[in-house]
Structures
1.
Amino acid sequence: MHRTRDGSRWAAATLTAVLIGVGFLLWWVTAGRPLPDSAGSPVRVEPLVTMIAYGVAGALLIDRRPDLPFGWLLAGAAVLVVVQVLILPPAYAAVLDGDRGAWARWGLTAGTFAFAPVAVQGLVNIRFPSGRPAGRWGAILEKVIITCTVLVMVGGLLGSTTLRDVAGGATGLSHPLTGGTAVGRIADAAIVLAPVVVVLGLIAGIGVVVRFARAEGIARQQLKWRAVGVIVALVLFPPAVTGQLPALSNTVDAVVFVLTLVIPVLRYRLWSIDTILRRSLVYGAITAALVIGFAVLTGLATRVVSRQVAAPVAAVVVALSFVQLRDRTQRLVDRLFYGGRQDPYRTLRDLGQRLNAVPGGDALGSFGHAVASALRLPYVAVERADGTPVASYGTPVEPLERRPLTYEGRLEGFLVASARRGEEGFDDRDHSLLSDIAGQLGPALHTRTLTAELLRSQQRLVAAREEERRRLRRELHDGLGPALTAIGLTLDAARARLETDPPAADHHIVTAREAAAQALADLRKVVHGLRPPALDDLGLAGALRSQADRLTAGSPLRVTIEAGELPDLPAAVEVAAYRTAVEAITNAVRHSDGRQCRVHLDASVRELVLRVDDDGTSAGPWPPGVGVTAMRERAAELGGSCQAGPSPGGGAVTARFPLPETP
């Protein structure tokens, strides 16, 4: 963004001057007073159109791009026309009434300022669209036009030719300062350069057409509009110089010139379209309000004082009310275009209330809609760190802005937003407000993630419980059930032969006893699968020692169990730690060539830490087999973690199991 505060002030000053000129011109014309052109003919529309077109367009360009010359040139020409309108009509009316005093003759020299828009068109054509002269010949042509324009303006202010031309060729009019002197004669001669400036301006316009024919890409599209304006100016040139409808030709030329300068700027994004529209709405509304206010005040004041007093008083009142009216209208239009960006604290408060009002996962979707509506954005989305969308509103439009969402220093995701249509990106205020919004969304996304993980964990637990129930049902039904049935049938057979065939009865009883022993073994296997009995009989450390002795029988590996005073552990933690340690010892026995294995248990207030180390060698990272995966899943089910792999001393398995807080 190239806009500066000084640019905005000059834009406001230009519009204020134009409003005063427009108001004075309307009052003067409605009063039935004559208004001369450069040939002394009455006109009404030409200066009005020139002031408004050049003034509004110039103020707009100064406000947005004060670094480019176009706005300054247009504004300068508009202000000179305003000066002409304020000074020339009273002087012209005085001359018509027979007053040829010094002040009236000085006022007629203001007709020279009508030449400014003509010179400005040539200078704009030389510098469009980059703001710099188009090549070496363009720079030379620009210097010649500026020099000739200055000479023409000085000649018009110091010579007598302008006085006689504006007054319709009235005789006996001489310049009050230089009339009859050599300076006056030189000044009159300098006015002859006016047609030279016009011809050079046409040459500059032809240069625009030539550059358009040679240009490519976006420059060709920009020059196309200005080339059309040049062609229209060439068509209007003959009737203007021959005296056929000169006022109409000049009016149409001024409008076409401004339009063909502004349209490519808006359409091909020399700067922000939405911002220009916003400023246009502001100043258009202000212009309408002040013109109406000036007319009303002038009409009311003329009932009390004369018209000569009423118009200046109304102009002063209108000028004083400009700043306050502009600020109020600016806030209204900013709210329309940018939503709550102008009041970030209120916006954050409303968004926070919106975020807390909707429970659960729907809060993020509602929040995205609220952000898009509050800031007038076409697209807002919330994504996880891996790019998975969580919630979105609208349709994405380039460019996209991505703001990180963090919680306790950890990246949770991103807030994605599209810039407003017609804008090339976000400015500093947007960036600041989006950062504050992202600060609120980080904890919300973290809560959403935790909720989703909790739901998945609950689903896994329910699935695991049902799978375990089905396994128990299958083992009891297929294993223990037939065994008990067989025992009952065998006992029935033994009772039937107890009196008739005692040896057969004894055989059936022995068979039943063996079946009962097998059923008991199967039952113990099922019970051991639920929870190892050794944990209840020996405790965690003792159960690990017992199991380690059985696993290392006949193996050179020796296992050492290190455990201090362990508190009463939750059953789930105790079983998970036991099975993880047994799996780690089993892997060391099967795959390690080490001689020593150390199992260390350490319980703090918050967690139980299990570490199993061996001094064997490892060829590389451990593949995620069934055993390693099972260890990690057991820790994750309890909210812990498990790391398994090679270490500098051999192999290592470290598992952490959170412990519940003791009331």
2.
Amino acid sequence: MLVPWRALFYQMVLNVSYHIVKASLCHGGHDIFATVKENSPMGEFIANITIAAEPGANSIRLCLSGENAGWFYLEGRTIRLNSSFSRGLDREVQGTILIASLTCYEEDMKQNEYRLMVEILDENDNKPYFIEKTIQPRSISELTSVNSMAFSVKAKDADGDTITYVIDKLSPDASYFRIDLPNSGVVILNKPLDYETKTQLEVVIYAVEMNTAEKYNTTATVRLTVLDGDDQYPQFLPCSPVSDHTICTNPLYIANISEEQENSVLHFAPGPIHAEDGDRDIMTPLIYTILSGDDNDRFTINYETGEITLRRRIHSRLMTPSFRLLIMAAQVNDPKKYTVTTALVRVVAENRFPPYFNKTIYKGFVIENSSPASLVSTYGNEVLIIQATDRDFRDGINPKITYALHPVASSAKLYHITEDGILIAKATHLSAFDRHILEVVATDQESGEFTNATVDVEVLQRGQAVPRSPFGEERLFGDVNVGIAGGLASVLLLLLAVAALCLLVRLLRRWRHRRDPTERGSVALGKHPNVEPSSPIQAHQAP
């Protein structure tokens, strides 16, 4: 009875020993730690498996599982990369480590499980890029101080490379900025801003890899709008530009008043009196003040509008021919920002009549010549004088009238008119047979009244005589010259006069012979034939 049990025991021992030997085929392995470069090709070697049995034999089976198991496949005892053209291994996408499990089965029974950890090695396969919000258009005040931060930019690199920032010196407004710390992205204002001269700035910035051989880089254009700051003083208008047109001088305002005038608003030229803040986008309100010359409140000013009013009349324009008012315009929020100008008030005689020209069209002639300047003449070769009349003056001559050519036609540049109304032509720029129509404006500088007249200037060729009158004197009887025609007319008149004289003498002789002898005697005695003596005495007293 012992033999069967012993046989059974030995059989059991053999079976256990067989399974132990068989199970040991999955032993000998261990956790696998490996590396692989990103962007590696399909089938790239990862690691070898160190188990006792050959996979696929002796009923041994290996299996990969886990979240990243799809990135690997088994080839015998070798683990390889499972990538493709459409699915490349990218450290920036998949992360730095791929983890999977390697399980060993024997006859479908799980025997051992090992960890597979593969580090993805970085390659420089990405360029830097700017964070969009840091390169958006922005604004900067013109009052931003030099050497302070104007703005900052930020770039990233998916490979984690070190980035440095550089300003493109060829960009339009590179001179306004600089970068002191290349790795910071902080852009410093390098020189003052001025809204009045430049309102838009543009600068190009590079972001460059510093720790790579490739030195990949990218660029961004940053645009800035300069905001107006309260840094300009007020200006009276219209102002006259000086030098670079950033500074202008205030005008001299002029107004005329009469002795009879009072309690009236004055009208100035150029006017009205008005000032504006030099910071045109801010336009701070201003207040007006008369600093001097108001003659004990004879003149007052509206502090909001700058309107000046004459309160009391002037007793004598001979004693006070004019007043000079010094006017200040200052900012309401900062009285230290102000400007000053002068208003001249002239006391003049009462103006009742406007100036006028005696005729509306003047005829002028100028002969083509090489002289740089030539007087324009009129009929009879007399100097053309264009003069307006003012009935406020006894002789009609107002010394305050000035003359100017209205710059409408281009031909006005070829002529100049003096203060006395004499027209001068630039003869070297004229050609024979040209005809120019000019408009002359006469302005009373005291009253501001004006009138105008037209001048018709004809350019004559060299040697041509100036016409004597406007009545077709140039031609007479076809092609006969005016001088010849005049001579013929004089001869005819002389002949007619001689013939008339001869006829008159002959008639006189006949008349004398026919008279009564007594009448002839009376005439000889010095008496009129119809006069009868009042008495014999008187008759005898006759000589």
3.
Amino acid sequence: MIPADIPALLAELRRVGNDHFRCEVKRSQGGPPATLWESISAFANAQGGCILLGIDERSGFTVVGVNDAGAMESHLGAVCSEMEPTVRAEIFTATVDDKNVVACYVPPTPRDQRPCHRRSLGPWAGSRIRVADGDRKLTDYEVAILLANRTEQKYDVRAVPGSSFADLDQKAVSRFLGRIRETKGELFRKVDDERALTMLNVLTVHDGDLVPTLAGLLAFGIYPQTFEPQLNLTFVAYSGTEPGTLGPAGERFIENRSVDGSIPFIVNECVRVLKRNMKRRSIVSGIFRIDEWEYPEEVLREALVNALVHRDYSDFARGMQVQVEMYPDRLVIRNPGGLYGPVDVGALGTTTVTSSRNKALLKILEDTPHFDGHMVCENRGSGITRIRIVLTEAGMEPPEFIDGVSSFTVEFPNHALLDQDAIEWLQSLDNRPLSRSQMTALVMMRNGAVLTNGTYRASTGVQDSRTVSRELRDLVERGLIEQQGTRGTTTYRHSDGRTFEQEEDLFTLTRLDDRDAEGSASTADAPTTEELVLSVMSRTELSRTDIEQQTGLRGHQVLRALQSLRDRGLVRMIGRPRSRSARYVATSPAPAPTERS
């Protein structure tokens, strides 16, 4: 951050009305706040953030300044030095509205050094995490998993007391050994089965007996839940967009299942249950339409395997299951334990660099045949990349990855990105061919997204940054998008210098002008898209479909207008964003459309 960024940041905070995930303000006129260390710890254990001293949140983020900026900077530096590990913050004083504001940018602490905590309190009492606009104390499990992540994880190679070789599916083990001896060379052909399985971490010695490891039991167990009852998967299909929403008949959910067995069995059974609760629909693929499940099967398998293989198997997490939740507008898969190692959530799917807390389990499953003959996983760091590519090919939105300290979540929107309206818009361009990744990026930018080389890769599944640069340069040269900045600060957005809302207004004026040619309307009093939407709103709840039908606008126009009206506090949403089941209601009586001169 530089001083010039502070006014823009304050403007954003005033618009939102409170602090947020990356910024905390404090009045600080009575001296340094006692809770400074909490915010520093919280930002360091998340994605980093900025602390502004001399800003009064209660009076609308008014700049009140600090009395002694030099002393405040020194105090901030001292607090950063009291943290473990020491926080190397960027601290400076900026003049805003003729007053001194002290800014402190806290960088994120590397994953293998967390939790960042106050040294005098220790990690259990002195660690915080940033949640929305506040700082929360880390739970015992969160502290335990962060401390465990500092070292190599070996929970998957521990013996399972009470189990024996007879608890493994002998046919599955035989197929595994057959593949190992076929692909690993002469080494495993020279040793007997027990020796080979020990070398491969399927079996281990415990109290003088050869017993399955946790990895061996999860990969080949007849019923692993005999020994670990909670190491399974739960599936719930909800009728509404939130867990507490009741269905038409008062039902809480459509289906509620607990899926037990080995990892290959759980994946196969969960996909079967998901299909039972999915619909088949027409998916846009280029300029064609094909019948496909709501969520491609390959995507489901990859996501389920990732959740089961990369989850936390420490003692703290043995009572937690992998959770699959299906809603009308999205599919959520959640597993215990956040990301492990140096992998960042923003880089998922854009690089093959991988880090796993369950190395032995992954190694076993890469040579474990699935029911269809393919291996359960590749262990090449390509699973999420493949998920992005398959979703792009199906014309669907990219998934959202949420990395919490105690859990990792992937959310798949049940929404087609390249719908018919988007396809018609793409076909109206310069008639030169576009790659599928260019189509996806163009529609995202048309919908208001600002992309970089990295977010382009993350959204389209293209891994090579040089390919991305070439595709973006092509779009810039064709005048379809605009480039801003250079080198590491380069961003790309929809061209013509118009926001999406302005483009909608232009479309509306053109549409009304066409009607005027038929004597039914005049462009002199053509309302904007927002005014059209607001004119049909009342205290009665309306869906997006209702508003589309009453205004004659297209779906993406209504969606953007509603977002703008919500930002201005004129419309309130009931439900989840982008959900077709969400409903909207005006917060005040709708005004008459504004006349144009």
4.
Amino acid sequence: MTALPPILRPWAAQLSLFPDDLALHLGPHVARLAAALGGLRPRGEAEGGEPQGYDGLARRGPFERLLVSEWLWALEAPDELVRRAAFGELSFLKPAFRQPQGARRTVVLLDAGPDQLGLPRIAHLALLVVLARRAEAAGAAFTWGVLQSSPGSETHTGLEVRSLMRWLEARSIEPATANHLDAWRVALDLHVSPGDAWLVGAPRLSRLAGAEGMSRIEVSEPLEPGAHRLTVDVRPAAQVARSVVLELPPPDDCIRLLRNPFERPRPAPVWTRADRGLRGFAFSGDGRRLLLHHADGSVAAMAVPHSPRATVPKPRRVHVPGGQRVIAAGWRYSGGLLVLARHGDDYVMHGQVRTSKGFRKVRYEALEEEERPDPPPGAPPLVLVSGLDGNGQEHLWMKTAEDHLVHLPPPGPGGSPFFGYVAAEVSALAEVRSKPVYVVRPQKVSEKLYVAQLGVLDETPTRMVPLNARHGEAYFGYSPSGAHPDAGLLAVRHQEENWRLFLDLGVTQIVVPSAYRVVGVVHPPAPSPPGVLALDPDRRTFHFFSEHAPRTLVAATDDVVQAHASHGQPVFGWLTKKGELVVWDLMEATVLYRAVPEATP
């Protein structure tokens, strides 16, 4: 969850269960309660365990563990040995023990009776997040349940959406009693030594028979007009009590936390008539704009909404004059939309290209017919990728349908520039960290099969980085951290079902069945690792393949004819056979944008 501030990253795995806005409301409560609770103390040497060698030095111990160098005093200066022993200056080997970590556990029993109904349960929810993470950090098991429930069927381990929903539904009009507590103590074997066991509820729980030796957390709501806060008293067993005041989120968000904190808001989809004749789409060279190709030959650059609740600005659209055919399109952060169109034997750039003397319009000279980069009839236009040289001049590149990399140089004093062919067998082209990069498939020379290579175009000469992959089909993707220093998140096919992800610390192997069609590489929210996005053989369902077990992300309403993942932000989109365009947000697992051809104004 990249939306969390750095101070909340330790609880990212637990807070990722909630939508971002509710996680940000719970986060401050979690941080304050964690500071009040403190960490789960590790077992000391006195608690025993299996001997496991030595771990450092100590000032006390039996003389059998005295350092050999210390025995020299007995030979050279016996009186000094006696003095050092009296003043605790001798050094002994400190034994290490293998602690029975599996036997450690944290037990939490929550009161769901009338004393704690309503707002106090928000504090309970934050405490479950804190205590679950606290136990995980110490390698302890985490067991929890509701006092008024039956221990046989309502004992939970870990935090999951299903168990938390059962807790939210376990409201009771019966106050917690000593019988409830005794049933849990017997079921969890807490009679001998409660250990790290906590009672969460009203102060009256301390008076229950059997609560002796258990730590308590008392949650109360101030009886003041207009008060919108909770007081939480943390009372660990045999330790000093600490008090925390929690200012609650707005009332609407409190209702969501108490009813269903895991339901993500479903924004009204964006319907637009402008996409009635949508022929295809692509993400811009930097991955931050959606390029829409319409049946009337026009091209639009649309900003991808930053959240499901954001308003979509009106796309900038370019209509080429009659007699011209759109060949390629691109978008620059500084310069806007570019559309390359063929007019007869020449090529015209709609939009201005940056030169050392400012922005200029460019026309490219005609090439031989067999060297033209035109896409096949009916195919979507190519994507233009932009980059600046040391003189501030803008260079453009595009990957043709024949997988050739074509260079569009800036205009010079000698007239209109010509296209230049840079490389063949190019499988991917993108702008990564303001640098244009591409991947070349392995070349077979002299019966030797070379590996794929990454080309960095902003350097002279072009720097080529070997990639240990034998097939070469590649996709660039977005990752907030841990990506390759030159390519960002990059997936390259190595064999028929084997893909390799190139990251900052090495290469990850991922297996994707050959029946699935890979459409991109993505990095969902933590704790998920990066992986490959693939379309199911049913042509509707998108799956995520990574080091973990495969999982389903989302399903389209009709057969998918085109799908792309952005390499500039955590989103991907698809176009269905019926013309529906959908952009999906990986962070919130919801629709960012939807356009259907049946819409009416």
